[in-house]
Amino acid sequence: MKPLPVRPVDGIANTGTQAPLPRPVAGRVMHPLPLPTPDAHDLVDAIRNAAFQRMLDRLDVQQPLPVVDPTA
After folding, report:
1. What is the dihedral angle through the alpha carbons of 42, 48, 52, 57, rounded to the nearest 10 degrees?
2. pTM
3. Which of 29, 46, 53, 56 lies at 20 to 30 Å from 20 by C-alpha?
4. How far apart are CA 19 and CA 57, in angstroms?
5. How high is the mean pLDDT of the chain?
6. Angle at 12 between CA 7 and CA 15, to 5 degrees
């Protein structure tokens, strides 16, 4: 029988600094970035105002007609 090989006593030659190990990610799941969620009322107002402004720009109206609220 041959004897088992012996590891060197000097250790491994130092080749410089080692690269840092990657940080473990819990579950390895991608999460989207948090986005600000506007209130529904504010979003509806913004859409309505933008549409009204586009209408005025298209029609080139200087003074819009008065709007009468039918629920009043």
Report:
1. 70
2. 0.33
3. 29
4. 59
5. 77
6. 165
